[in-house]
Amino acid sequence: MPAAVLDPCAGRVVKMRVWACGDRWVAAGTAHDAAGVLRPVLVAAHRQVPDMPAAARKENEGEGGAGVDWVRRLREITGWSRPARRPEVDWVRVQSRVGTRLPGDYRRMVETFGVGASTDTWI
Question: Beta partners for 39?
Fold first, then answer.
């Protein structure tokens, strides 16, 4: 979790969800106040947005961009530094269940970041 989000809570966070939104981190959760009472917390903090790689700019401009590692790009944008969350996914079983082959970058994204609302029922 970005330090800019945790700093205002001074180590008292109980639970926090964080989203990157433009040049801001937005977080919502709970933390203990100075008296130890559990309180809801909403934090908005500055976020350094990494420059878009030249290959990604070309992709956005319709000039190709093959070879862009979009999962790496997502890791850079979100500041993700944790190990893979779901390295053990049985993609043959998952793809059989949904009836189609899933793109490689999608599979890597799930393996890196874990499942989301749309994948919970598949995996």
Answer: 31
Nearest-angstrom CA–CA distance, 45 and 32: 19
Q: What pLDDT is attached to residue 25?
A: 84
From residue 64, alpha-carbon distances to 26, 44, 53, 73 in Å are: 33, 35, 13, 16
Q: Report residue 3 as tokens.
A: 């330090």
pTM of this prediction? 0.46
- Alpha helices by DSSP H, 18-90: 54-60, 70-78
Query: Which secondary-structure segment (H or E) carries 15?
Result: strand 13-21
6 backbone dihedrals φ, ψ, rounded to 5°: -80, -35
14-52 pLDDT, tens digit per residue, is 988 888 777 888 889 999 998 999 999 988 888 887 676
Angle, helix 70-78 to helix 104-113, in steps of 10 degrees: 30
Residue 121, pLDDT score: 44
5 C-beta neighbours (distance < 10 Å), count: 20
